[in-house]
Structure formats: C-alpha cells, structure tokens
Design a protein that fits this description.
Blueprint lengths: L6 H10 L9 E2 L5 E2 L5 E4 L6 E6 L4 E6 L15 E4 L7 E7 L2 E10 L4 H13 L8 H4 L13 E3 L11 E2 L13 E2 H17 L1 H4 L15 H15 L8 E5 L17 E5 L1 H17 L5 H20 L21 H16 L2 H8 L17 H9 L7 H20 L19 H19 L2 H14 L24 H5 L42 H4 L3 H20 L17 H5 L11 E7 L2 E7 L5 E4 L5 E2 L1
Parallel strand pairs: 2-8, 9-13
Antiparallel strand pairs: 1-3, 3-6, 4-5, 4-7, 7-8, 9-10, 11-12, 12-13, 14-15, 15-16, 16-17
C-alpha cells in the first residue's frame, strides 16, 4: 500500500485520539512500520493491562497484555512496558487502546513504510548544496538562490601558501551543518557512509528517485548527489598531494540565507588528518564510479595515491586552528586510524602488498576498536576488511568480524530489561547523540550483514524507532516526519527562509546532558534522554550535520532496501573495479618521513596539570602527576 493512500486513515485516527496525541503515555515510531518487521512501542503506566490494537474502522486485530515495566537508565525513573505487536502484518493504519482510551499515535504499517523518510534523509544533502540555485522543481517551498560560488577562494597563511592574492576554484560540496563551512574530515566520513549505503544496497538504490537535477540521467541519484561533494573535495588537494583542512570564512556567518553570507572564504590549514580522509574516500569512489564514468574514477584513484604519498611523508603535519579563525576546528582526529582506513581501501582495489604492509603495522584487535566518528575512522577499515573475505586473509577477516559482532552483542545485551527497547546507554548522550545512535545502528547493520542474525537487524530498527519517536520526549528527531517533529533546528537556511516548517529530512543532534548553550536549563543528569531543547538557539542539542544524517540514512535506507528486495548484502560480492597503483610504488623508496612528535609534555586539562603522552602512532593519553592514567 502506498503511504499517500494511508493519509485519510491517519487523519481519521488522529481525530479519534486527539486528546492523547501530545500527552502520550505510549512512545513509538511516528512514521511507520514495515509490514514484516519487528514492531514495538513503549507504554508507561500499563503494566498488566490489556492493550488492544484496532483498524481505522474499529475492528480489533490484536490484544497484548503489557509485561512488567522496566526502566531505561537514560529515561530516568519512569518505567515502561515494551509492547510487541509484530503479529500485525497487514498493511493499514491502526490505533492502540487501553479500554476505550487511545494511546500513542496512529500506527502506519506498509511494505514501504520507511521509504519516504529514507529518501528525505538523503534529499537533505541536496538542500545542503553550495554553489547552486535550488529551484522550485526540486526544492519546492525551500527553493533558494545560489550561495557561495567559491570560485575565488583565497589561501589562508596556515596552508603554507605565500601569495596572499592567489585564489582557486573550490566550488560545489555540501554545507557541513547549520553553518556554511565545508570541512574535509567531516565530509570524508559522511561521504564514505553514503557510498557504503549504495555499495551494500545497489539493486534498491539504482532506481530510487530523489528528485534532484540529475535524476533524468543514467546514474543512480544517490551517486549523483555524492559526486557533488566529491568534486568539491577534489578541489581541496594541493599541488604536492596534501589536502586543505577546510573551506570557510574566518568567522561564522549570522542567521542569513546563503546568498547573503558574502564574506571572503579561505582554504584553511593543510594536515595529515584531512589527507588520509581524502585518500580513503577517493579510493572507494574510484571503484563505485568506474561503471558510470571511467575518467572520473581514474582521477579519484590518482588523487588518492598522491594524497597517500604526502600523508605518509608528513605524519607530524597535524592541523591546528589558527588564532584568527573561529569556524569549526575539527581538531583531534586520529591520523593513524585514517592511515589504516586508507590502506585497507587501497588494498581492496589493488591487492598491492605495499598497502598490506601498512595494514599490518596497525593491529586489528578489540583494544583499538571505538565507535566510528570523524575523530576515529578505525571501524571504517574494520567494516571493509570484514565484508571482503575473498580479498583479505582469514586471520584479518576473523578479527574484524569479531570486533564488529562483539560491539553489536554489547548493544543487544543492553536491551535486556530495557523498557524502551533502545540500545543506547547513559554515556551516549553528548553532543550529536542522534549521530552516536545512528552509528551504533550502523555497527549492528554490519553485524547483520556478516551473520544474518535478526537480533542485530531488530536492534538497529529499535534505534531507528527511537529517532522517529520512541523516546521519553515523544519527539521525532527527523524534520518533516512524525506527529511531533523537530520544528526549530539550528540551521541557517531554516532560520532565515521565513517558512515555519524547517527543511525536511534533517536529523537534529539530539539530547545532550552537557549542553552549555540555551539548552543548559534542560540538562538532566538523572534522565539524560530528556536533555533537549527544540530551539534554533541550541546548537548543542538542535543543530543538524551531514555526519549525523549520513549514518541515519545508511541504517534506515538499508532496512528499507532489505525489506524491499528481500536480501541483504552478500560479502562474496566481487570488487567492481581494480587498479594497478603507480604513484605509491614509484614513491615508496624516496619518501622521507618527517619525525613523529612522540614524547611527553605538561598540559592543562580541566584546570588541572597533567602529563600528555604521545606514542609513535600519534595516539595521545594522559596521566596525572602521580602517574595514574586518566580516562
């Protein structure tokens, strides 16, 4: 059943349950449930009571006795009963009742229940395009004039360029978040995540129409959208192979539309973090785009090799924020994780033993594993090793698979006695908690790909349900979707366009118990999942960002793709394109690595004097003056 055909039924049930819509005792995914999938809702105050599910015409289809109420630590003391209504497997619109009282919101069940939300989470990237006009044909009410042509970008002194009048063309790309900057390290993980979404679900995405200007060509829309950002990233590579850290103004613009943010823009910094990031992404792109544009694909692998050579020769070229620059710093990314990630991607498309040696330099083990983020790309390399058993040796593959399933098992275990059925812990609720949630779900999806064990798929779906409304605030964190969606995100175009509803398809950062902005008054250490303020003044809880949307798009898109096609990614799928590396073997004997800045120094952290220890991989750790390790 098409979602549009369900609209009238939703309105009918909304009217029936109007008194409870915004004072729900039941918390649920407000967008919809796939017909054959797991379906759950969290109900407060229902323990032992009979919950009845009815169709829009009032026919009873299921009765469930609410189980014992359980707490979920991030929600505080409020216990909930997790109600499973997966038995309902007929498309339609339903409502849950206790007695004659409707609880929660109308429940939409359809084969393609998540498709529109998945498409919107990808269409967000079109709305973030720099350097082009968004026309009504594709942007609807959110059409806007072009901003930031970026055809005359200057070089900040931090790039090492001495000609202060020189400019270059840094056009295209996506605005990073609620601001108008473009940052390589955040673009890297975001672009890679979307490339993986396509790679793992090609059959589905080859025909999915996003209604973007390129939709009429023969290239999948998702790849056309990703290419807009790849082409900008390519402009950020210096002649020597190093990659500039970011392209921004010196200070953030105000809350204005792109066309009115006209301050001079600069390439700022050049560092090993951005360069490794660039190399890994371009390597994957070289494989994926080869069937559609051989010249572009070969350009990507050529530029990736050039970046690899520079990064290997300049391990100490760590980006530092210049004193006259106030835009996002994106400092602190672990360069050694970028090297592993790049080496893995290059080995996958080349089989070159130089890359294999680079991988062996960094052990593949549990101790180094950490949830993927722009700061730490270790898991991105692990994902690739685990899902390519015919390319990497068995020991590497087994270790990578064990890392993924071990992390995923920990998430699944957290669902025991969990009244909301959400695999998030109290410590997950910091800046960008919805990005944390989505990245956890991405780990779970990889565990599902590797094992086909539905416990992982269901746990990932539980996180999607959380983002779409199964949370103690009864909030859909996806703009434009759900009964109670985010309405006032920290997003300059949405703040300045004069339209009440924000641009659709954006994931808000989410609850942050450490917010220091206007959301500080909502900080709740006893119920961290409620530490949120739907107001554009709160960048700490309500900003949007490409690196939060990308993993959410990966998860919701993959779940819908699996349901629509009836199958998940096969790890035996061969690589579509291979290359003989030329630049790296030719350069390996003449690379002279700059000395790594290893050692110890005194630093002040948290108003305390500590000792910072840097190992040979550039990894930092801290101890107090008595020698005790500080976590």
């Amino acid at each position: 059943m098409e979602i549009s055909k369900l609209f009238t039924s939703v309105l009918t049930l909304s009217a029936l349950g109007a008194s409870s819509i915004f004072a729900a005792t039941a918390y649920q995914n407000q967008v919809g449930f796939i017909t054959k999938s797991q379906k759950q809702m969290a109900v407060v105050g229902a323990e032992g009571k009979e919950i009845v599910f009815k169709t829009s015409s009032g026919n009873e289809v299921l009765k469930v006795t609410a189980p014992a109420a359980e707490t979920w630590i991030p929600a505080g003391d409020t216990a909930a009963s997790l109600i499973d209504f997966s038995e309902i497997q007929t498309e339609g619109v339903y409502q849950a009742y206790i007695g004659d009282e409707p609880i929660g919101h109308p429940i939409t069940i359809a084969d393609n229940a998540l498709e529109e939300a998945a498409k919107a989470s990808l269409k967000f990237f079109y709305f973030q395009r720099a350097s082009m006009e968004l026309t009504e044909e594709y942007a609807g009410a959110y059409a806007r004039a072009a901003g930031h042509p970026d055809t005359s970008v200057k070089y900040h002194a931090s790039t090492g360029k001495t000609d202060t009048d020189a400019t270059f063309n840094g056009s295209k790309g996506w605005y990073d978040a609620g601001d108008y900057g473009k940052y390589i390290v955040n673009s890297g993980i975001s672009t890679y995540t979307l490339l993986q979404l396509y790679q793992h679900n090609k059959e589905y995405f080859k025909t999915l129409d996003l209604n973007i200007p390129e939709s009429k060509n023969d290239v999948p829309d998702i790849l056309d959208e990703i290419r807009w950002n790849l082409e900008w990233m390519l402009t950020m590579q210096d002649d020597d192979g190093g990659v500039f850290h970011k392209l921004t103004t010196k200070q953030f613009a105000g809350s204005v539309m792109p066309i009115k943010a006209t301050a001079q823009r600069f390439a700022i910094g050049k560092g090993v973090e951005a360069t490794w990031n660039f190399a890994a992404v371009m390597t994957l792109a070289s494989e994926i785009y080869k069937p559609y544009d051989k010249d572009f694909a070969e350009k990507c692998i050529e530029k990736a090799q050039k970046a690899y050579v520079w990064a290997l020769a300049n391990p100490g070229a760590v980006y530092k924020q210049p004193s006259d620059v106030g835009t996002g710093s994106y400092t602190g990314a672990l360069a050694w994780t970028g090297r592993l990630w790049t080496s893995v991607e290059m080995y996958r498309v080349s089989g070159d033993t130089v890359m294999l040696n680079g991988i062996k330099d960094i052990p593949i083990n549990q101790k180094k594993a950490s949830l993927q983020s722009w700061q730490n790309s270790y898991m991105l390399g692990i994902f690739t090793i685990a899902t390519n058993p015919d390319i990497f040796n068995a020991e590497m593959v087994d270790s990578a698979k064990a890392i993924i399933t071990s992390m995923a098992d920990g998430y699944v275990k957290s669902l025991t006695n969990n009244g909301y059925g959400v695999a998030l812990a109290k410590g997950d609720f910091y800046w960008g908690s919805n990005g944390v949630a989505s990245n956890k779900a991405m780990v779970l999806m990889h565990a599902y790909i590797l094992t086909k064990d539905e416990k992982y798929l269901n746990a990932a779906l539980g996180i999607v349900d959380y983002v779409l409304g199964r949370n103690p605030l009864d909030k859909s964190y996806l703009t434009g979707f759900g009964v109670n969606p985010v309405m006032s995100p920290h997003h300059r175009p949405s703040q300045a366009d004069g339209i009440e509803a924000p641009v659709p398809g954006m994931i808000a950062g989410g609850p942050n118990a450490d917010a220091t902005d206007c959301a500080k008054k909502y900080n709740n250490k006893n119920a961290v999942a409620t530490s949120y303020y739907d107001n554009s003044c709160s960048y700490a809880t309500n900003e949007v960002a490409i690196n939060w949307n990308a993993p959410f798009a990966y998860v919701i898109g993959s779940i819908q793709a699996i349901a629509s096609t009836g199958s998940a990614y096969d790890v035996k799928t061969p690589t579509e394109a291979t290359y003989k590396l030329t630049s790296i073997p030719a350069a390996k004997n003449r690379i002279r690595m700059a000395p790594q800045a290893a050692g110890k120094k005194l630093v002040i952290r948290g108003q305390k004097v500590q000792i910072e220890i840097t190992d040979r991989n550039g990894v930092k750790s801290y101890v107090n003056l008595g020698g005790r390790r500080i976590r």
